[in-house]
Design goal:
Blueprint (H helix, E strand, L loop, with lengths): L1 H4 L8 H22 L3 H23 L2 H18 L9 H19 L18 H18 L4 H12 L4 H8 L3 H21 L4
Length: about 200
């Protein structure tokens, strides 16, 4: 379970910060154009951000058809709310905030359908024997993560799959940085405890 022992990104390196700054400027410019009714700018933002946000939605709601509906809602919100964006966060972070809110709202209405797909967080193997073992391990991890709350699932997903920093996650979940860290600590300890009892290494 290497991903559970790996430290999630908590700080941006200089190169990453520079790239993020460039992306921030580009996205912000596009969003300003969207606020003026520019469909081409909207299409560019959709093309750039929708794949990863769609994946995040799928992982939270565990239903691709629902995620397809939600991603449309996210970008409708972008279109209608672009003029209200003041640049206090990255556009990417703002979109994740909207997506998270949409997913949580759906889950509250459909609690029995909630789940989490985490197999992509696990390493791939080559031999048939290893693949069979890995498939079994993935099922056990999936079962363990479904016992976590939506907030804890979101922290695991955003940190390890989407490689967001704790600061970005705090902005997306709209909670203090310390809360993100405590949720991550709890989620990792819980998963490791459950998986150890199943003798999964």
């Amino acid at each position: 379970m290497d991903f559970l022992n790996r430290k999630a990104p908590s700080n941006d390196y200089k190169g990453e910060a520079q790239a993020a700054h460039s992306s921030l400027e580009s996205d912000f410019d596009l969003l300003q154009q969207v606020a003026q009714g520019d469909h081409n700018a909207f299409a560019l933002l959709y093309e750039h951000h929708s794949p990863r946000i769609f994946t995040y939605l799928v992982h939270l709601v565990q239903d691709e058809s629902v995620a397809e509906d939600l991603i449309q809602e996210v970008f409708v919100a972008l279109w209608t709310g672009a003029h209200r964006f003041r640049g206090q966060s990255m556009v990417k972070t703002w979109l994740y905030q909207i997506a998270h809110h949409k997913a949580v709202s759906w889950l509250r209405r459909n609690v029995s359908k909630s789940g989490f797909e985490i197999s992509k967080l696990l390493s791939k193997t080559d031999t048939p024997e290893d693949q069979a073992e890995d498939s079994w391990r993935n099922e056990q991890v999936r079962e363990a993560v479904t016992q976590l709350s939506v907030d804890h699932k979101a922290v695991i997903e955003l940190a390890f799959y989407h490689e967001l920093t704790y600061t970005e996650i705090a902005q997306i979940l709209r909670c203090p940085l310390g809360t993100v860290k405590s949720r991550m600590s709890y989620a990792r300890k819980y998963l490791l405890t459950v998986l150890k009892t199943k003798d999964i290494r």
